[in-house]
Amino acid sequence: MSKSKKMAIIGISFSAITAFFQIILTIIKIIRLNIVLKESDASSITKVPQVITILSIIIWLLLFVVYVNAIIFSILAAIKSNNQTYMIITLVGIFTLIVLAIIGLGLIIKENKDKCKSTCLLEQTDKQPNLTTKTNEFIDQPIVDANEQKEISDDNPANL
Predict the structure, then answer these.
(1) pLDDT digits (tens, 9 = 90+) for 49-62
(2) What is the share, in percent, of the chain residues with pLDDT greater than 70?
(3) Any transmembrane segments, and where (predicted)?
(4) Residue 110 lies in domain
């Protein structure tokens, strides 16, 4: 597996984690908004539970760390990619629309998977011994069948 494929997988994983944190943060914002709207007077806005505020700050920090890692790994995967089109789609997607970045990273993974299939098959065929020739790979000498050896020994005048 190539480095660009590994980095693309990590980038997509971090993007998914970022989306999960954003969903949780949205739910927390809705809860905070409901608490504020249920209170009628303006002085009760300060009574919003501090636990929800602290939790949202912690999730914002985690979201920031994970998203920065997703951006870094996505940029590295795009730079290491062999295909210029996939690199451009990924880089434009990182800074404009995250869906494009995910599509670009998916294409990088697919490209390297197909590339690995063809190169891995070539490597396997290079490593396999050639079955048409009768040679011993350990001592680089031809293998002699028992029948051929008997014929050779019958031709030897010393054996007569």
Answers:
(1) 777 788 888 989 99
(2) 62
(3) 7-31, 51-79, 86-109
(4) 3-127
76-92 mean pLDDT = 88
Q: Is residue 78 part of a domain?
A: yes
157 falls within a domain: no
Question: What single DSSP character describes residue 129?
Answer: P
Residues listed for the chain: 160
> Does 54 map to a domain?
yes
CA distances from 121 to 61, 63, 79, 82, 126 (A): 45, 41, 26, 20, 9
Full DSSP string of 53-66: HHHHHHHHHHHHHH
Total domains, the chain = 1
